[in-house]
Design a protein that fits this description.
107 residues; alpha+beta; four-stranded antiparallel beta sheet; three-stranded antiparallel beta sheet; globular
């Protein structure tokens, strides 16, 4: 199970998404409106070499690609030669998009 937290980073206005399990944690930053676009994750089919470039982690881009009910979150300079990759359930990415949309409505 992946725990998800969306928060606004003080001083920057950037949204921080924390993806966390018992074994790892990944913090992704970017504009809140960008994370709403994760609702299109099913169009980013890895088998067709498609991905969504949304957010940054450790100063480099983050790419999101769906495959077989999961989403690969790829951290690196491009979606072919990433440095870090984690797999999360598709439902977790749906939750990020839903929470981002909800947060925009309450701004």
């Amino acid at each position: 199970m992946v725990d998800i937290t969306l928060d606004v980073e003080p001083g920057t206005g950037q949204t921080v998404i924390k993806l966390q399990t018992d074994a790892w944690e990944l913090n992704i930053r970017g504009p809140l409106r960008d994370f709403v676009h994760l609702a299109q994750i099913r169009d980013a089919d890895w088998n067709r070499r498609r991905s969504l470039a949304i957010g940054t982690c450790a100063g480099v881009p983050v790419y999101w690609a769906s495959s077989d009910g999961n989403v690969a979150v790829l951290v690196g300079h491009d979606d072919e030669t990433w440095d870090i990759a984690v797999s999360v359930p598709l439902s977790s990415v749906d939750e990020i998009a839903t929470q981002a949309k909800r947060m925009i409505k309450h701004q």
